[in-house]
Amino acid sequence: MKVNVKILAITALLVASLMLAPSLQARSGGINNVDSGCTCHSGSPSSDVSPFMTLGNGSALPSEYNPGETYTFSFGFTGGPGSEFIAERQNTGGFNLVATSGTLTILDDSTQMIAGQLTHTTTGNDQMNWSVDWTAPSSGSANFQLTVNSVDGDASPGDGDHWAQSQFVMGAPGGVGETTTSSADGITVLFSAILLVSLMLLISVAYVFYRANPESFSWSAFAPWISEWLTSTDHKKVGTLYFVAGLFYFLVGGVIALMIRIQLSVPGNDFLTQDQYNQFFTLHGTVMIFLAAMPLINGFANWIVPLQIGARDLAFPRINAMAFWLNPAGSILILCGVFSGTGADVGWTGYQPITSWVSSHPGTTFWLAGQLMLVASSTLAGINFITTICAMRTPSMGWMQMPLFTWSVFVSVMCLFISIPAFGIGLIEAFLDRTIATAFFNTSAGGDPLLWSHLFWYFGHPEVYVVIIPAFGIVSEVLATSSRRSIFGYKSMVYAMAGIGFVSFIVYGHHMLTSGMAPWLRFVMMLTTMAVAVPTGIKIFNWLATMHGGSLVYRTHTLWSLGFLVTFTLGGISGMFFPSIAMDIHLHETYFVVAHFHYVLVGGTVFGLFAAIYYWYPKMTGKMMDERLGLLHFLIAFISYNGLFWPMHKLGLMGMTRRHHTYFIQANEYSDVVGTLPPEVASWNSFITINAFIFGLSTLIMVTNMVMTLVKGKKAPADPWGGWSFEWLVSSPPPTPSFDDLPTLIDVNEEHGSEKKENWLTRLMVPNDPDEEGMN
Amino acid sequence: MSTSLTEERIRQIINEEMKDYGVRKRAPPSASDDDHGDDHHYGHHGNGWGPHDWEHGAPHNSWAPIIMSFGITIFLFGFASTFVMNDDLNDTVFNGNYLPIVLVGFAVIISGLLVWWRQDMSFDGHFEPKSAGAPFQNIDIRKVGMWIFLMSEMMVFSSLFTTYIRYRMGTESCQAILDNHATYSNGLPFSPGDACWVPASYFIAGSHSESWTLVLFPDTLVPGAINTFALIVSSFTVVLALKTANRTDLDHEERSRKIRNYLGATLILATLFLVLKLIEWFVGFNIGPFYAPSLLDDGYTIHNEMYHFAGAGHGGEYIDVNLRLSAATFYVATGTHGAHVFGGIIGLVYMTYKAHKGGYSPTNAVSIEYFGIYWHFVDLVWVLVFPAFYLY
Amino acid sequence: MAVGGEAYNELFDVFFLWSGVVGVIVFGWLIHHSFFYRSKDGEVPNIDDIAVGEFPKHFHNTKLEIAWVVLPSILIIYLTYISLGPASDVWEDPSVVGVEGVDYYEVGINGQQWFWEFDCRNLDADLCDVGVHDETGLTVLSVKKDVTYRFNLSSSDVTHSPYIVQWGAKEDSVPGIFTSMWVTPDITGEFFIDCAEFCGDDHAYMTAILEVHE
Fold it and tell me: Do C44 and A484 touch (CB under 8 A)?
């Protein structure tokens, strides 16, 4: 073991020394290649070259500008190889100018604007100085970053080519502008942030450890304790890790969502710039789906599935640990662009060609790479769960005797497992486009943006069922247990889930009904999508019928399940509007869509997960959660949730479009800005933002509840709610290994002889009972 | 986290079970144990391998997952920083400053892999976990897992073939445009630098080959043809290794030597495959009567926007075509297959080493079988890739 | 008007009506059961004799289950059927859908980061004209009422989607792919064209005006 610690230490040392290596600072802007001037010359920065920037008449830049006035700048460089070849000036000078505020206007054909930055054209490539018009903003100081290339003109990069970078500042009138700060190297920011976060994590984990046993705390006991968590392959520990990571990213995604809501609370808001807004909504989607919802589901699946099927662990525990650790490791890549202000800004769907070559943010490349790691994680988790459920059920448990949560995990993992390789290949193609410049989605080379859409949605649609189906399982367990009944129509529940899983593969085109897909394919997708409603309807009616003749015991998880029924039904009904092509043409990419998928993803998945938290928390920790805080959480969250998302339907019908960083309302007595939306949109948006904050903060009640009860909650019995499946057989929390002897499932239906085993399908699905054979 | 009860329980179980199997007693990992599971396992046959040794105690811990995961992060971070597409979208900018990060990442991944293998070295096949439930009753769980893994692999290659079929069918072939005298089939004129499809087989098996020493066997096809046979033969040597490992009539040393040799042969053939592939892509060859330039020298690259396409049967006539898309599809599809071969090589290195150390016997010969399943799959994929990309 | 007009409104009303019916059934049922079948006096009975480790006895009613497979299916088939007609209006040639004798005019719409370009081809200024809006400075496309147009969509860089907000009509303009949108304006006035497919920084500012005159 000592060797491994050494390896870790050496790795850390290598990484640290790399960070300190001055060579890494050489490329201007670090990982932010937006700032690196003309990237065709990889020479080093040189003191020979000195950039300059003056007013058009040759006088120095004034220290303060007049708001709204237009200045003409003359800028360029002196020195370096570029100034030596006077006779044949060819491609010897280049520049890149970034202005933090104000507007740059092109004067002649030697300059051009690319992605908001001024740079030279082919004509301007032969010059040493250029000029441009700049219109001053109304307030705030203006920074100019000028990068110049001085090139020897031998048409090859490398030696002899020099570049340099300078900053110029014009202060706001009266000196009220904010002081300028020197921008740090991107990679330094990134690694500092990672180190800082790890340090804080370590401190807080140490504090948790200290709190657990304040008297006998010692650092020598802490190290093995923490390394136990880092190296564990036990399904319960890995499940807890998944759970903690998922909850952490749930809060991160929530904070991002609140930023978005602040920006949208009033029309024409400038709380976030376009650039920041685009990064935030991209990361909100990615973080919530891949780093919050799926790890939370995996956390419960890890914890509960082996217990429910009477297995001692998952089939491949180390692969399970690997699947977990790929998540936090990948999340660093997904989020790292944000540290240098250049996160992915393409939407979570990453439509082409914006992802593969238009987005200038290096963060987009890292985002693709990070998702690739999550694809690997999901594949490994998929192998694990499918194998476990197929092969490790306790011998007495047939397929049609598995608890519904296990069934739901099985169906959802199957969907994920079969669909995610398509996404992985799409990611690899886009990643290679952005790095080694392949041409998969480059339209000028014949690439087809719709290929990405097909690969993405072939995965993307099953993916949304992947996160909702486990919630079906959870609600089936919770409602049946709380009603003190067995679930109504167990078999039709299973067939409905399997049906939803199957249909999920042939409906994905409804995301592309306006994307220029072949019309006949749109019709096919319309028909299949409509069909999704049938199995979903079966499930809802079965849940309602389960309550019939029961005796509903109101606990927090019961409330969340009933809340799930309400919101999921609403989400399901609004979903019926999309497959109908004529309506989808109106509703596509509007807030009606946003409302719909938040109704099924938050009202479905997240409410289901909340129910699961209240339902299985006693099993996982051995402590009962506080029911009064739970009730408070449910009431506040359920009401504010509907206040948050219900008005979005209305906004969508009025024509408010998704992914717009701001919106303008039509002229009225308060505003003379002419916008596309009716005036009431503004007040609805403010209302939504208020509710978003209430909903976001209400989650903290649950977190408080979890932490409080962990420290001083009541001890939980083995079966606090009266469930029947095996997880209630073991003590709370379960021992390791969970079962001394594999438990035996008794099927009360078989005693009545109602189970028929004649046909081949039943024979395949239900194992032969060895005892029975022995008796014969 | 309420360890006391857990530990007590584990100890109790271990004590009971150890008696039956006569295995050396060992302490389960716990909060007070500053050592880790893997050291206990190493070198002791009969000790638990992997997680399914519940008969023998607790799951064993491993640093491998966390090391490998963060290694992949560092590797991808470095790769994406080192290679960046340029602003003209037609070439990559190489930032050498970031190359050390790629290498560090690779080193970390390898070290994680070594940790993983080190823990697996002692697995001798005792207590191989069996599937309990229908429909896989009494089949090794690892075997079930391997087949399920291949489901995912099948989707990977299906997606690549989707890309291939989409672009192959949706992009007009350069030959057809040339046949129509630089006009698309819809009558629009073709202008230099426009995209059309040049299959790799044009360079490999088509009329483009500069010299035709054998009429039916263009030179550039030689590496591909040898590769096909190399993979098929290597599939056979894996089976021989498995068959030998199952033999009980040989003594352990001789059997181990034979297994090692068969696995070594597989390793050499797999390496041959990759080397020939790289020759075909980047180096080309000129040996005696056989001469063929590499695809790189032919101009079949992912960055070539102006390829002089002369086609077949048009004398000196040519068009300048953008073949980036067809090249990218070819390199990424066959490259993904190559990456799978590379993965197999990494596995084979370990297995050959383990065989050399005498780690295989009839009790754990199935490990070779499971590798063989993967290897046959890689072989089968090549059987599809070869005609699609090299011949057609 | 082919899209977003009456066809859309009628469809929406029908769907909304059936949503209401389904909603009333489900929520009525839910509310009734939540109150009627709640456990009284904190009592926790064990109705189905559920015990840990025992698969509980099946609780089902085949007739009911078949009923809620068949009834929703009938509703779905009906809703699909009424959706088919308006859907075909969207893409197909009017002569194919049966609007005999109607000529149509082609107008090009090109999306570019971040503005719309309109191409009137050789049409008269009465049929199609491009100008600048007085108050807002936005580009204006003027078209004539009750004339059928086919907007041929194209894109210079990334995927855009012209979205005529008040009509609810949109179709992506994908670089390298030909897409089109059929429009027959039947009301006069000024309408906004937004971009509905995310296209980069100034996505929200990509606005133009569609003016319909007599």
Answer: yes
